[in-house]
Each structure stands twice: as C-alpha cells, then as structure tokens.
C-alpha cells in the first residue's frame, strides 16, 4: 500500500460518507479499524488526522506525522492523529 493508495482511500471514504445514509456510511468504528490497519503498515501514520479528514473535521492530509522523531516539535500526546501527503518515500 502506497501513500497514493492511502490518499485515494481517504478521498473515496470521504466522498462516500457525504452521500451515504445511516445504513451504508462508514462509522467511526469502521474508520478506526481501517486506520489501525494503515498504522500497522506505516509506523508514523497519523490515525486521528486521517479520520478527521474523512469525517470532514480536517481539511488536509499530509504525510509528515507531527509525532515523528524526524520532527523536532513533535509531542507524545499527539501520536494518534492521521496524516497523508508529502514527498515520495516518506512514511505516513
């Protein structure tokens, strides 16, 4: 699974949930299961930001986790937020 795949999945889920009824929408529990799978493949995957983007609470997906050890401003409390976007080869 590539970053492009993660972005495409988030876009597809977001578009689906905009028009879905209660029987067919992806619930927060469904999204959490998907986010956990993505995080199992990418250690720096930001679950919360990814889910927020899908639910419309976040407006952007970036592929740099603010909690990554590569980010000097990272904080430990924020490691459950999903992010997608960025340079090729970077982790989610």
Please, could you describe this protein's structure?
Helix content is 43%, strand content 0%. It has 92 residues and is mainly α. The protein has one domain (3-78). Helix 1 packs parallel to helix 3 (47-55). It is globular. The chain starts with a helix and ends in a 37-residue tail after the last helix. Residues 68-92 have low confidence and may be disordered.
Task: Tell me how many strands there are.
Answer: 0
Helical residues, percent: 40-55%
Strand residue percentage: under 5%
Question: Domains counted in the coordinates: how many?
Answer: 1
Counted by DSSP, the helix tally is 3
Q: Characterize the main sheet.
A: none
Instruction: Sketch the topology as an H/E string, one letter per element.
Output: HHH
> Roughly what is the average pLDDT, rounded to an integer?
74
Distance between the termini: 11 Å
Low-confidence stretches: 68-92
Q: By helix and strand content, what is the structural category?
A: mainly alpha
Write the layout of secondary structure elements.
Layout: H1 3-19, H2 28-41, H3 47-55
Helix pairs in contact: 1-3, 2-3
Task: Please describe the structure with a list of short key phrases separated by commas or semicolons.
92 residues; mainly alpha; 3 helices; 43% helix; disordered C terminus
Summarize the structure.
This protein has helices at residues 3-19, 28-41, 47-55.
